[in-house]
Design goal:
Number of strands: 9
Strand order of the largest sheet: 6-9-8-7
Shape: globular
Helix content: 10-25%
Radius of gyration: 16 Å
Strand content: 35-45%
Oligomer: single chain
Structural class: alpha+beta
Number of helices: 2
Order of helices and strands: EEEEEEHEEEH
Length: 121
């Protein structure tokens, strides 16, 4: 994201990556096998629970624009041991980053973001 990462933040069992942008964009991750859940008492707070099942892949993905080029994005993914590749997606391309080799994050460099916004908005 071009910002900074913190282990064990904001909770002991999670880590966070901050973009450093003016919006405070942050991605927080928990250890595999843990999920964020609405407690039985209802929304307004959350609980971290152990998941009784471990899905191999997830049914969603997200796109994230960053101020890094393709090589920088892919180097970060490779350092973590994650699969990564540039994929053409019609009129724009994205860098696929497979978090823990199971959760897809489409990361867009500044040039990719311009094309993405032109096509998708």
């Amino acid at each position: 994201m071009g910002g900074r990462a913190r282990d064990h933040f904001p909770f002991e069992h999670s880590s966070a990556a901050f973009s450093g942008d003016e919006y405070g964009t942050m991605i927080e991750c928990w250890k595999r096998g843990q999920v964020v859940a609405v407690p039985d008492s209802g929304p307004g707070t959350f609980e971290i629970r152990d998941s009784p099942t471990l899905q191999e892949h997830q049914a969603f993905h997200t796109a994230l624009s960053v101020n890094l080029d393709d090589d920088e994005i892919m180097a970060i993914a490779r350092e973590a041991g994650w699969k990564t590749a540039v994929r053409a997606n019609g009129p724009f391309s994205v860098v696929e980053v497979w978090i823990e080799n199971r959760l897809l994050l489409e990361v867009l460099s500044p040039d990719q973001t311009k094309n993405y916004l032109r096509v998708m908005t």
